[in-house]
Inverse folding.
């Protein structure tokens, strides 16, 4: 591995946010999944979660511009099980919902341990996820379309989280455990 | 037309930003075009520009979740002609570029008349556009991927513009001329 590549991987590891993640509820289109994974990597998220019923077929290979090796995708059989898992890690659950009760996405404190939940392209977030959430947020829109593309909405909220965490000095100091770093460095050196 | 629909269209017209637009250089994927158009509508942009060489085939029908009727797409044969057109309207030209010289996208004042230029999925922005621009901006990334999806990058910058313009009180007072409003109201009432 070249010294430049080693330095690049080490810088990435220093910026990984272990207590910020995103969870996609039955997102079907591969280009949306791919766009979300690229954004996740770019803001320092190394683990992405997907709720994916066993009978829904497999998640298409993610060719998210070279992010495959750097972002792990974790599948959960149901929304309830996924959320129980995030709760066990002490995370607040933020759902995105195009409802009158949702607040502006900039009003949540994302420096806390957080999972952001995104809904399906056609049906949106499930009622179950909304019921289990701490916060319901929306990206304000002043036009005629009913919704944004799901990867666009995800990116807007993740970059707001990035902005807040950057201000709070949460980037640049390593939080991933040493063993995981060694594995990533090893695999990254042998692509 | 129902009173609710009329009120909704009028509110949209009150929020349209006539001196903020986006220009796509040879964006080929229909889902990216569609996502950009939805975002444009959502931040109050009623006119989207595309540089589209005559021999490149037609821009695929945009089925951007009902935005087709509300956002007009203007095609330009070349980057130089498009930029000349924006200059004639007194707009500053902001290009997005993954270069070492680009500054953080949050450092530009988007309350000025502005066109944001986005590059092609594979090749990025043209050297010509960079040479003619006032500002070169980048969305910072701390992971391993080389770039964001183009519709994601566009949305992050357009929502930063929306944030700045909202703070500057630039939403909620009608700027489109009366004749255009009447046409939009007429067409919107007869979908
Ligand atoms: C295309 S939208 C779903 C539209 C669906 N008809 C509905 O009413 O929810 C897919 C997902 O993108 C996200 N999304 C889209 N626009 C959003 C917005 N303005 N604010 C927050 N999330 C949004 C949400 O996660 C949503 O579930
Ligand atoms: C997939 S990228 C192009 C990648 C191309 N290989 C390059 O080096 O430019 C397509 C377009 O998305 C926009 N884009 C992607 N990531 C960006 C970022 N981090 N900052 C600003 N613009 C970005 C730019 O307009 C870019 O031209």
């Amino acid at each position: 591995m070249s010294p430049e590549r080693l330095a690049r991987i080490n810088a990435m590891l220093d910026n990984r946010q272990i207590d910020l993640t995103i969870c996609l509820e039955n997102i079907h289109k591969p280009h949306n999944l791919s766009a979300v994974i690229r954004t996740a990597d770019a803001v320092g998220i190394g683990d992405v979660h997907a709720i994916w019923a066993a009978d829904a077929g497999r998640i298409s290979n993610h060719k998210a511009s070279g992010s495959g090796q750097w972002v792990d995708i974790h599948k959960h059989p149901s929304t309830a099980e996924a959320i129980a898992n995030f709760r066990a890690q002490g995370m607040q659950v933020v759902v995105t919902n195009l409802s009158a009760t949702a607040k502006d996405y900039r009003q949540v404190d994302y420096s806390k341990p957080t999972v952001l939940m995104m809904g399906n392209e056609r049906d949106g977030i499930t009622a179950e996820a909304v019921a289990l959430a701490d916060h319901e947020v929306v990206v304000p829109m002043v036009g005629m379309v009913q919704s944004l593309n799901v990867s666009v909405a995800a990116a807007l909220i993740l970059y707001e989280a990035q902005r807040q965490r950057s201000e709070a000095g949460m980037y640049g100091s390593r939080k991933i455990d040493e063993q995981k770093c060694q594995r990533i460095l090893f695999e990254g050196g042998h692509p």
User: Anything to note?
Assistant: The first strand of chain B starts at residue 20 and ends at 25. The first helix of chain B runs from residue 3 to 15.
